[in-house]
Amino acid sequence: GAVVSQHPSRVICKSGTSVKIECRSLDFQATTMFWYRQFPKQSLMLMATSNEGSKATYEQGVEKDKFLINHASLTLSTLTVTSAHPEDSSFYICSVKAGGRGYTFGSGTRLTVV
Amino acid sequence: TQLLEQSPQFLSIQEGENLTVYCNSSSVFSSLQWYRQEPGEGPVLLVTVVTGGEVKKLKRLTFQFGDARKDSSLHITAAQPGDTGLYLCAGGQDGSARQLTFGSGTQLTVLP
What integer pLDDT is reported at residue B42 of this predicted model? Predict the structure, then answer.
């Protein structure tokens, strides 16, 4: 698969602040990236599909204004959790599908809102 | 909505034992992938199966795709503590705008 870098790996923020998470495709020009959320010991839940140069496609129940996605280049997608609250604390993971090489996942970001 | 059910949800076994994890759906998938995830890390791809009835082996791990491409299994022989992790199956659909559909996950703990 592609080489995917996600940053930061851990972040702690105060309630009411915003947090930006970056997902970079290092060796593949990704027109599409995917953002997931995962609770402890549970599976991945797709939040949104990030599309380069256009609006992201959000899954049902995911607030667009809460989770802002920007995919301004073929190698970078960002997820911003706005006005974060403790219930937004979770593990966020991005992924890239690099054509025939299949899906590769980032190493994830552990967000803790205090 | 496509659903992938995994069983068991939790499994705790002794080192050296064998185990099988199942992944079932009422939908047909063009491909099915198995991932292993460790705490604080993203999922890592173990295998992709695309042909009904296909069997793939990866050292002590054997993966099978059902003939109808609706189900899959993962068998681990002589489990080791290093096999501990969350195992996820995920189904893909060619031509679908959606990403992978993930199974509910199986948390495996292998005790020394």
Answer: 93
Q: Which of A6, A43, A97 sits opposite B105 (nearest CB)?
A: A43
Contact, A21 vs A37, CB < 8 A? Answer: no
Average pLDDT value for residue range A48-72? 92
A75-109 per-position pLDDT tens digit? 999 999 999 999 999 999 999 987 766 789 999 99
CB atoms near residue B92 (< 10 Å)? 19
Alpha carbon distances (Å) from B14 to B8, B10, B21: 16, 14, 16
Which residue of chain A has the CA closest to B105?
A43
Q: How far is residue B69's CA from residue B100's CA, in Å, rounded to a whole number?
A: 15
- Flag if A105 and B44 touch (Cβ within 8 Å): yes
